[in-house]
Design a protein that fits this description.
Layout lengths: L3 E4 L7 H12 L4 E3 L6 E5 L3 H11 L8 E3 L15 H10 L4 E6 L14 E5 L4 H9 L4 E2 L14 H8 L5 E4 L10 E4 L6 E4 L5 H8 L3 E2 L27 E6 L2 H17 L4 E5 L11 E4 L6 H17 L4 E5 L7 H11 L4 E3 L5
Parallel strand pairs: 1-8, 2-8, 4-6, 5-9, 10-11, 12-15, 12-16, 13-14, 13-15
Antiparallel strand pairs: 2-3, 3-7, 4-7, 5-6, 9-10
This protein binds adenosine monophosphate and magnesium ion.
Length: 353
Amino acid sequence: MRTEVIKQECSCMNEEELKRAGAVIRNGGLVAFPTETVYGLGGDALNPESSKKIYAAKGRPSDNPLIVHICCMEDLEPLVSEIPEAAVKLAEAFWPGPLTMVLPKSQLVPKETTGGLDTVAVRMPSHEVAKAFIREAGGYVAAPSANLSGRPSPTQARYVLEDMDGRIEMIIDGGDIPIGLESTIVDLTQEEPMILRPGYITAAMLEEVLGKVDTDPTILDGTCKERPKAPGMRYRHYAPKGSMLIVEGASKAVISEINRRLAADKEAGLRTGVLATRENVDAFGADVVKCMGSREKEEEIATSLYRCLREMDDENVERIYSESFSTNGIGQAIMNRLLKAAGHEILILEEDA
Ligand code: AMP
Ligand code: MG
């Protein structure tokens, strides 16, 4: 299959091209498209054959459900058997935007789309190209991140092409992605709302609207005995090709520990890399040092994290070290993704060490 790449800018969209992209979805094909979180790999959410194609293109296990993307509030009702009050409040506060809600599904949604579950995850993205494309596609676009299963989610169209060339009909190149981490997922099917995946919309933001919100305990704890409630969180994910270790502690101690390890790795002939904050970017003696952004602005870190992981692969880095972040606010989502990329390998340095 030939994969066509078309360009779309939020400021001047080409309607004819978007209609063509929408027609690909209506005809059962797949189109990758930009959203504010990461690039999505879209298919018709109401067509079981399209969902099967998504799993095949990504190499994704078919028990890992897809998020259904909509472009207006009226399109929610047909997807679900019930709209709880909490969903209405959250939609008012955060839609369109980087929040996914898990709700009881209606008959309209095929089990292929929900990985066999009776619930459906729904999101209304705010990206102008995404909204226009979803409308042209018929209103219901199932879309996981547009990477091969296990690879970091793409935040640039060139990484979508790298993973999906020859596997899907079309890629809409909408340029760089503003947020860079997948949506926050909140489950509204239980008594208490629960965050299944942290994201740009933080626990504190949700609690401001809903009161108490639980968080799946497996999100940051690799040793937790419970199974994550979002099936996708059970798989190793977001992994660069090199092995990775996160080092946590006081800045000076982290720098000297990483540098000590880098020296040993170099001795062993390994190509090394560090994911650094802007504050420390000049302190590391690695072959490749990537600046993720300022520790003072964690949104910057979120936006560049996946790109930096991909760049480590581009530069054939075999051993990666990363600085660590607090688990407050958006830091929780950053640490969740970093821990997954590192296979939960983290070294915590004692205060006085
Ligand atoms: P991705 O599409 O790559 O952003 O992954 C979608 C995430 O949403 C995966 O972790 C899924 O397991 C999760 N998800 C989708 N639908 C549901 C659902 N009905 N219940 C729980 N988690 C879901
Ligand atoms: Mg994904």
